[in-house]
Design brief:
Elements: H1 2-20, H2 27-31, H3 44-68, H4 72-98, H5 102-127, H6 136-154
Length: 156
Amino acid sequence: MTLTKTASAVLATAFVGGLATRPAESNWYAALRKPRFQPPRQAFPIVWPILYADIAAVSASTIDRLRDGDRTDEAGAFSAALTVNLVTNAGWTWLFFARRRLGASAIAAAALTASSADLTRRAVEAQGGRGAPLTLYPLWCAFATLLSTRIWMLNR
């Protein structure tokens, strides 16, 4: 039941964010100066589904572990943090691709990195090593922050 809820939330995030990425095919995006460390376009549809599956699975097991341990307040706090994280995740996509707000998207990417690191910390505190796979998420978000910031700097 919990996995269904977290997977649905993650799928909704992916769907909403995906609606904003259509401008990735635009002349505007093609004309942006990008750093040499920009991954190829094909990397993103590989990396994000893996991360989204990781987020859904680890979040569900964390919430279940907290609830099973009679730590319902912590489970609720984790769920709220996950919601904020997923809204920030989709929001970055809209800021960058749909609104073309490069500076704001770099700040949003940094906020997403901090939020993802917090989720990972909570997951590891709740269930030890079973929460560790979530570490990939803030690492990727940190890279995205660097990438977003550099794109912003190159295109001011």
